[in-house]
Amino acid sequence: METVVIAPNWVGDTVLALPVFEALAASGREVTVLARPHLHSLLSLVPGVSDSLTRSPSDGQTIEAMRARNFDEAVILPNSFRSAWLPYRAGVPKRWAYGGRFPSWSFRSPLLKPSVRRPRISGRHQSTDYLELMEAMAVEAPSDWQPRLSLSGELKATGLSRLARAQVQSDSSAIVGLFAGAEFGPSKRWPWRRFVDLARNLRRARPDVRIVIIAGPKELWLAVRIHEETGKIHPVVGPDLDLAGLAAVLDQLDLLITNDSGPMHLAASLGVPCLAFFGPTDPTRTRPVGQEHQVLYTDRWCSPCFRRRCPLLHHRCLRDLSVDQAVERSIRILDSLEASGS
User: Fold this and answer.
1) Per-residue CA distances from 231 to 162, 165, 179, 235 (Å)
2) Is 126 helix (H, G, I), strand (E, B) or coil?
3) Fewest C-beta in 10 Å: which of 5, 159, 287, 315?
4) pLDDT, tens digit, 9 for 90 and up, residues 45-100
5) 208-220 per-residue burial string, b: 16 or more CB within 10 A, e: under 16
6) CB of 162 within 8 A of CB of 249?
7) How far apart are CA 8 and CA 274, in angstroms?
8) DSSP category for residue 178
9) Residue ranges of the alpha helices (H) in 101-191?
């Protein structure tokens, strides 16, 4: 069975969908993933994915690329009309996806074959959203439905090398990463000056800890500001790396302090403990998966609002999260790791 999976556009959503790729591959399918170009290096780390296709800005090119492959079925993970339109126009015979319940999804239901009724998702984590879709396909779910990635020895060595170039050596001292970005928008970002104060206070409390500022190309300006305001002693790593390279660096961390973001989910899938700041998004839905993580969330009356910018302009959902709280939680996680010998 040649199966094409239409991947989500966001890094975090794609990481949360990793069990889907695993389940489909375990069922005997040859899994090809249609994804945006920036996701291909991430997909190369997934054992269940045999190939990937580039989702072009031109729908026509994407449709022709899919049509040329003669896929037997499509599994459509995004909820958009367009994601269902592409395999429909490419003539893929079976097109599995959720339809119904909301108007925007109802419009795409005629494009699906079959259309699976979307389950109620209130109160459950996003990583489990596709369980009912797998059940409808008669695909057995993995015993541990949790996003996990493991890196090759070569890629692990790459991570060590990149940190060594930043003058961060691998020894017994804990390495803490700070990620101040969030591609979704400003509303998901804890104020960058708080990251400056966090780095200073954490260094005072735990002088042995080494701090690395993690950044992608779009977060470079934030990383540079934090780097400069902390006396240029904490290196910036990552803006020139693809997602596989970023995973290699994250894999070397003992703790990632981060906003709700793609790197948060990527680090969690590698088993790296995270301290995550949540404001306009819902930690019930998208907190990092695993017991070792900590979440700071104020649960204000106006949150989660899921807006890219604070509609009330005060951004209290994140501004009310203090530096002292973050330092205390960080030390708690590090102490726990040391006690367990991790």
Assistant:
1) 21, 19, 18, 10
2) helix
3) 315
4) 999 999 999 999 999 999 999 999 999 999 999 988 899 999 999 999 999 999 86
5) ebbbbbbbbeebb
6) yes
7) 23
8) E
9) 103-106, 131-136, 153-165
Angle in degrees, CA 290, 258, 49, rounded to 5: 55
d(CA 191, CA 202): 17
Q: Which two tokens stand for residue 242?
A: 């693809």
Note whether 2-136 and 153-340 share their fold: yes
End-to-end alpha carbon distance in the chain: 42
Q: Which residue has the tokens 């949150």?
A: 303
Euclidean distance between CA atoms 23 and 139, whole angstroms: 7
With b meaning 16 or more CB within 10 Å and e meaning fewer, what string describes 4-42? bbbbbebbbbbbbbbbbbbbbbebebbbbbbbbeebbbb
Q: With bands split at pLDDT 50, 70 and 90, how would you rate the model's confidence at 342?
A: low
Question: What's the pLDDT at 182?
Answer: 85
In 3D, which of 320, 256, 327, 318 has the Cα closest to residue 283? 318
CATH superfamily for 2-136 is Glycogen Phosphorylase B; (3.40.50.2000)
Q: Which of 3.40.50.2000, 3.40.630.30, 3.30.565.10, 3.30.1360.30 would CATH assign to domain 153-340?
A: 3.40.50.2000
